[in-house]
Amino acid sequence: MKTPEIEFRYSNIYDEGYSKYKWVQERLKKEGRKYPPYEKIMKYVKEIEPKWRKIEKKVLTELSKISGLKWKEEKIICYIVGYATPFSDPLTMPIYPRSQEYFIDTLIHELIHQLFTQKGNLNISDKSWKYIFKKYKKEAYNTKIHIPLHAIHSYIYLKLFTKKRMQKGIDYISFLPDYKRSWEIVRKEGYKKIITEFNRRLK
Question: pLDDT grade, residue 2 (50/70/90)?
Answer without folding.
Answer: confident
